[in-house]
Every structure is written in C-alpha cells, then in structure tokens.
Amino acid sequence: MYNQIDKYLTYILWLKKYVPYHERITMLAWWWHKISRFIQLFEAKLRYFGEMRNQLVHGFRLDQQHYLIVTDYAVGQITQIHDEMITPRTISEMYDQKVPYVEQDKNLWEVLEYMTKNKVKYLPVYKWKAFIGVLSLQDVTARLLKRKHVDISKVTVEEVDTEAFAEYEFIRSDKSIYQLHEYFASDKWIEVILANEEGDIGENIASIVSVHDYVHLQKQYDAQVSIPQNDM
User: Fold this and answer.
1) What local confidence, expressed as pLDDT, does residue 154 receive?
2) Quick one: pLDDT at residue 224?
3) What pLDDT, on a 0 to 100 scale, did the predictor assign at position 223?
4) What burial class does residue 101 get, using C-beta atoms within 10 Å of its C-beta: 0-12 exposed, 13-18 middle, 19+ buried?
5) Distance of CA 183 to CAs 3, 80, 126, 192, 193, Å?
6) CB distance 34 to 179 below 8 Å
7) How far apart are CA 86 and CA 75, in angstroms?
8) How far, in Å, CA of 73 to CA of 175, rounded?
9) What pLDDT is recorded for position 97?
10) Checking DSSP bridges between strand 168-172 and strand 130-136, what pairing results, if any?
11) In 90-210, which residue ranges form alpha helices assigned H by DSSP?
12) How many angstroms separate the first and last alpha carbons of the chain?
C-alpha cells in the first residue's frame, strides 16, 4: 500500500526526476491540486507511514531482523488512506439525495413550516422550471422578525427579497468531497453547493451540500487524522 501511495504521489505531480517522499507530501500540501486538501488533512499520518516504512525496510537490512512489527490496525489505516486518496468519494456518492425544491408562487408560511418540520435549512427556488436561487431558513426568518406586522400566511416566496437568498455555487457532482474546501474557503461566502452532472445552473440538482454539512464532515476528518505520538 505504501509503494502504491508513493507511486501515485509521483504520478499526480508529473515528476520526471526523483523527489523524496516527504518533499512530495509538502509540495502537494502547499500547492493547489485536487488532492491537496486530502494531503493537508492526512499529512501527519502520511508522514508517519513514511517513517514506518523506513524503519521496516532499513531496520531489517541492518542485521536481517525486524525491529518493527506492523499491526492489522496499521494495515487497515494505510489501506483506508490509500483508497481515499486514489478513489475519493464524490459529492454524488456522499450526498446523493432527492433534493426538494419550491416554486416561487408557493405560500411562504407553508414553505417555512415544511422547512422547520423536515429540518431543511436551504431550499432551491424555481419559477416555471427556471432556477431562481436558494431560500435560506435562517435569513428569511431573520427578515420576517424585522417586519413584525406581516401576515406570512398571505405572502408568497416571490415576495421575499432575493437578498435573503443564500450564496450558492453550481459544481459537477463527480468532484471529490475534498474539493469542497476550495469553494467554502473562498472569498465568495458560499453557503451552499448545488451539484449536478455538468455543474450547470440549467440542470436538475442532484445533490445539495451546505456549509453546515461541510463543518460536520470536517469533524469526521478530525476523528480520523490522529496518530500515535512517539519519537520515531
């Protein structure tokens, strides 16, 4: 598994001359590439595997005895990282869902009731099958609170100020989940990613990923990246 990771790092960087393993990790962590975010997240473990490999190979050559025995757990960890790096989960695989939407002439009270009941924070809005924007439950609620005397049972989605709509970006659904970082970390203040086959605003939305989903995903990463602390 280490050798396959080692070769993949060379392939992904298009290197024609030898560059040490740890330098390639640094290059990918600091340069922009589709796996750069993955490298940043798992950098400590990737470097740890490099040190372990050197101990296994060079330790054995020292006097033909193994100084280090690899556990099943370690094999499972490097296998998982190998698989995630070479065939990362895509947005459609991770967030494949039937994305609900609302027509612009829908009653606002019914829409807010639906969003609250189903814990939907963002809802795409259409007008005659044309995409208009993304309704944000939090932003709409905040604006309604400022207009205390509005009877929302008589208001439609169309009457909501579009400034209350969430910032969004359309991307292809076959992009890696690690590429979400470049969108949510950009200066555009994107709140929600809308994914479909071509990344085109005119297509049906196949997946929706909010910044809240991304924060939850980051917490999952944090639980995976810890490594044993020693002086190896």
Assistant:
1) 80
2) 65
3) 64
4) middle
5) 32, 25, 23, 9, 8
6) yes
7) 16
8) 30
9) 78
10) unpaired
11) 91-94, 108-117, 137-146, 180-184
12) 20
* Per-residue model confidence (pLDDT) at position 148: 67
Q: Are strands 168-172 and 192-196 parallel, antiparallel or unpaired?
A: parallel
Phi, psi of 201 (to 5 degrees): -65, -20
Q: Supply 226's token pair.
A: 């810890």
Which pairs with CB-CB distance under 8 Å and at least 24 residues apart come from 48-51? 48/227, 48/228, 48/232, 49/2, 49/5, 49/78, 49/81, 50/2, 50/21, 50/22, 50/25, 51/232
Q: What distance lies between CA 203 and its chain's CA centroid?
A: 21
- Closest-CA residue to 118 (of 145, 137, 93): 137
11 contacts 3 by C-beta, under 8 angstroms: no
Quote the pLDDT of residue 232: 40
Q: Count of residues for the chain?
A: 232
Tell how many helices (H) and how many strands (E) occur in the chain.
Answer: 9, 6
Candidates 62, 29, 59; CA nearest to 47 is 29
Give the Cα separation of 39 and 139 in Å (integer). Answer: 35
Tokens at 140, concatenated: 């709409």
Strands (E), the chain: 102-103, 122-127, 130-136, 168-172, 192-196, 207-210
| Partners of 139 in the β-ladder | none
10-residue averages of pLDDT along the chain (232 residues): 94 91 94 88 94 87 82 93 92 85 89 88 89 85 70 80 83 91 84 92 88 83 57 42
